[in-house]
Amino acid sequence: MGKKKRKSVSYSRYGYYFSIPFVLAFLIFSLYPVVYTLLIGFTDLRGVVPTSINFLENPFQNFQTILNMQSFQRALSNTALIWIMCFIPQLTLALLLAAWFTNRHFKVKGQGIFKILIYMPNIITAATIALLFSSLFGYPKGPVNDLLLAMGLIETPLNFTLMKWNARGVVAFIQFWMWYGHTMIIIIAGILGISPSHFEAAEIDGANALQIFFRITLPQLRTIILYTLVTSMIGGLYMFDIPRLYNLGGPDQATLTAAIFVYNQAFSGSYLYNRAAAASMILFVIAAVISGFLFYILRDKDEVKLRRQEKERIKAARAAAKTNAGGMAV
Amino acid sequence: MSNSIKASRSITKTIVYLVCVFLAAVSIFPFWVMFMNATRGTFEIQQSALALLPSNQLLRNFDILMGKTFNPITGFINSVIVSTGATLCAVYFSCLTAYGLVAYSWKLRQPFFTFIMAILMIPGQISVIGFYQFMYRIGWTNTFWPLILPGMASPAIVFFMRQYLLATLSIDIVDSARIDGAKEFYTFNTIILPIMKPAIATQAIFSFVFNWNQLFMPLILLTDSSKYTMPIMVSLLRGDIYKTEYGSVYLGLALSVLPLFIVYFLLSRYIIAGVALGSVKE
């Protein structure tokens, strides 16, 4: 029996057409600038109005200079410190709150309002928040100092901007304050996506709340936590608004983050575009390496194994089909 | 239930409520202080910086504020222009791209989608030097175009729209439109977009807020003070000119976030639902 011939119109070319704007915009506004930035890292481009642009004899000179600069190393360690001080409380509190708000045994009254209020800081412009907190933590007089004095917690006002660890602490706190609500909402969504039968089965088996949380909830949340970890890390590497506006006149070395370093190289005074570009590229490599590392550590090992088995199966099926290809498919 | 379990449950409940109320207060406190201090004069603030009740210096602070370079109206208008433009570009073209990924089967479809996911990991700030040089060479610094057009390639929004379409679109609708003789692009605009309204609404809110809050890119690209967006205006408050006018600084801050507060409290339900939606893979 011969194959039936059916004439059908293929619309697949529209898939290509509809994707063109995205691809164009990406090529023009993302890819080209990235490549251009990389190139600039190898040149001597500098100055308010760049006059000439030449490739350096030693192509990696800018990279070497940057890596050896004490302020760059400072910036990196600051960024890492502040990020850790911010992310650990953020994730912990978000997990705790999410566990409370999704508790199957008692509903927290007013949940909706709590969520709205806790998420609110995420919406407000970071620049405004930075200045607001800068005023709040004013020294010697400021709302926070007044409050602490009134409550008898401290005897003399604390200087929050000039003392290194205080400044870092406040910046980390601001970042935490802005993002823990966001993380909480995402984790709640993740927990709601876990099938209730898992929890019921565990309870029948006599597990208590802690065991359930650590043995069932957390592993299921692995992908979401990975997503939060990676996006927070990348966001943290490029922390700019808060540290810069909070501490414009303060001990910049203490809250100098990587992104501020790049900005300073390029736009305040020195206009050393080449060095700034090299620094940007170094940051990108760091981000890529850490992301890759995190993905590797937190990968779903079972899923990877399953996928590999699938591939083997498909390969075997294809090989078997080839050997049977002599007969006609009816 | 035995009494001990009941008792420990009540203790847990109390702890939970206490913590939640405390956190809610921590979220509100800074803004409350800001609004209250915006109405107090500099002298009052120097006496006691913490106040829970408003005072009557609002108008005086306002005059001082407007007398210098901080111009909330200009900042507001510019921010509206940039945010709206960027949101329109981002949402419309992301819908288009997502539809192309879902409705048609073409050879590069899966690789293209994987590619979009990979771009998701690249933050915009690494290419800022090259971007700035590029815009400088084509004369687009100090215009709004470089802040609006790049939104056309927004991998996160494409991802969200694609998830939404996969869950809600049935090809029958498209087929019946084709039978009726509609062209593909026309079908997209008149049939698909209305179906995507909830997703569009959610993403529009996020995109708008995100673009409204941008400081880094506009700060680098805009040098003419008449083009400053809100966050840049806010950063001006830090400068020497306002250093001792505490009341006015608070007022300036309050003005810059007032629109955000209004938008948020009107739409908070949708915003929170959207955050949840976007993160769970069905």
Features:
heterodimer, A: 330 residues, mainly alpha, 70% helix, B: 282 residues, 14 helices
Number of distinct beta strands of chain A:
0
What is the chain-wise order of helices and strands of chain A? HHHHHHHHHHHHHHH
Helical segment tally of chain A?
15
User: What is the chain-wise order of helices and strands of chain B?
Assistant: HHHHHHHHHHHHHH
The protein's oligomeric status is heterodimer
Estimate the global geometry of chain B from the Cα principal axes. globular
Instruction: Please report the distance between the alpha carbons of the first and last residues of chain A.
Output: 7 Å
| Strands of chain B, total number | 0
Low-confidence stretches of chain B: none
% residues in beta strands of chain B: under 5%
The coarse overall form of chain A would be: flat
Return the structural class of chain A: mainly alpha
Q: Helix proportion of residues of chain A, in percent?
A: over 70%
Largest interface: A-B, 102 and 91 residues
Largest sheet of chain A: none
Q: Beta-strand percentage of chain A?
A: under 5%
Structure explained in plain terms:
The complex is a heterodimer of chains A (330) and B (282). Chain A has helices spanning 12-40, 61-68, 70-101, 111-119, 126-136, 143-150, 164-192, 196-204, 209-220, 222-237, 241-246, 252-255, 258-267, 273-297, 301-323. Chain A is an all-alpha fold. In chain A, helix 2 crosses helix 14 (273-297), helix 3 packs across helix 13 (258-267) and helix 13 packs antiparallel against helix 14. Chain A starts with 11 loop residues before the first helix and ends in a 7-residue tail after the last helix. The mean pLDDT of chain A is 81. Chain B is mostly helical and 282 residues long. Chain B is built from 14 helices and no strands. Chain B has helices at 3-38, 42-47, 58-66, 72-103, 109-119, 128-137, 145-148, 155-168, 171-179, 184-195, 197-212, 216-221, 230-236, 246-279. The chains are: A mainly alpha (330), B mainly alpha (282). Chains A and B meet through helix 1, helix 3, helix 4, helix 5 and helix 6 of A and helix 1, helix 4, helix 5, helix 6 and helix 13 of B.
